[in-house]
Design goal:
Layout: H1 2-20, E1 53-60, E2 65-71, H2 73-80, E3 91-102, E4 105-122, E5 133-141, E6 144-147, H3 153-159
This protein binds heme C.
Residues 58, 60, 67, 69, 92, 94, 118-120, 135-137, 148, 152, 154-155, 158-159, 168-170 line the site of heme C.
């Protein structure tokens, strides 16, 4: 009995230490093994992105989609420091969800299904033809991801309109 209560106390204590120290539980769900046919960029290149930090939220009115923009540590630090050019190793991820009226409060919208996960990855040598960025898109339909079959040149062309911001539309969104 004494042993059990000592063990219990240890569990409670270590849990308190964990939460008290503001430690996140990380989401290590594996991403599917999918590769873009024209660039060879794969979903695995951003495995663990669920644990990246959110840097901005966007809403595409025409697609009725809420989007979270997340950054890996290299990109996060550069965005916060307002770097003019993002360093190699930067990964910026966009998750897009469809939206639904919230059942408990219909004038509120809530995120529903993930429709896409897209990313930009910086490697100035490998992607020198596209301002140093590699582009990949994975679309989710009926619960399954697929590599988008289109031409990433279209990504580059549209993102060229924000060349002065290193091809990023995202601005670091203040939280305080
Ligand atoms: C017609 C224009 C257009 C095309 C084509 C386009 N994007 Fe974007 N992209 C945007 C806009 C506008 C935003 C900011 C709003 C948002 O989050 O949707 C954005 C945001 C992003 C972001 C977040 C970083 C940033 O620049 O703000 C990523 C990652 C991204 N796009 C990836 C892609 C990929 C990959 C493709 C091609 C498969 C692509 N985009 C094609 C317009 C475009």
């Amino acid at each position: 009995m004494k042993k059990i209560s000592i063990a219990l106390a240890a569990v409670v204590l270590s849990t308190a230490t964990l939460f008290g120290a503001d430690v996140y539980l990380s989401d290590n769900a594996k991403v599917p093994n999918l590769t873009m046919k024209n660039t060879g960029l794969s979903f695995k290149d951003i495995e663990g992105y669920q644990n990246y930090k959110i840097v901005a939220t966007h809403f595409r009115k025409d697609k009725n989609e809420i989007r979270y923009i997340l950054a890996n540590p290299v990109a996060y630090n550069a965005l916060r420091a307002k770097a003019k050019v993002m360093p190699n190793g930067s990964k910026v991820v966009k998750i897009g969800w469809s939206v639904n009226d919230m059942a408990s409060f219909p004038s509120a919208l809530e995120a529903d299904k993930i429709q896409r996960v897209e990313y930009m990855i910086k490697d100035a040598t490998k992607h020198k033809e596209s301002d140093g960025w590699g582009y990949a898109r994975f679309v989710k339909k009926n619960g399954k991801y697929k590599a988008w079959g289109g031409d990433p040149k279209s990504c580059v062309a549209c993102h060229a309109s924000v060349k002065s911001n290193d091809a990023l539309f995202t601005k670091f969104q203040k939280m305080f």
